[in-house]
Model the fold of this input.
Amino acid sequence: MHENETADVVGVPEQVLDELAQILVEKLDILLDRLTDRAFEVPDAGSAAWQAQWLNRDSDAGREQHARRLYVRAVIASRAGAGLRVLTESVELAPPAALKSASRRGRRRMDADQLTFF
Done:
């Protein structure tokens, strides 16, 4: 089935496919958040360290951390080949100056026949 083919051709209502696609996007978004948290070693929710981070979120350092987190989240999605739209409030995805990479790895070549999620 091609992207522009209607669902009625395969016997599944268009509305059902739209709802299932939305569920998939939501699940991918949650998984991407969890993987981003793992990259930053975010403290357990409710712990004292987590509460300190939460209370600090509106400071300059908190906003900078949020920008770094969004950037890493976009990089993870990109490396996975998932063209997920980043739902942000006009946040630029340029790498923050303070972000340092641990080591440079060789770029993996993508297969030209590989399908993208979206």
Notes: The two ends are 14 Å apart (CA to CA). Residues 10-79 form one domain. Confidence is low (pLDDT under 50) at residues 86-91.
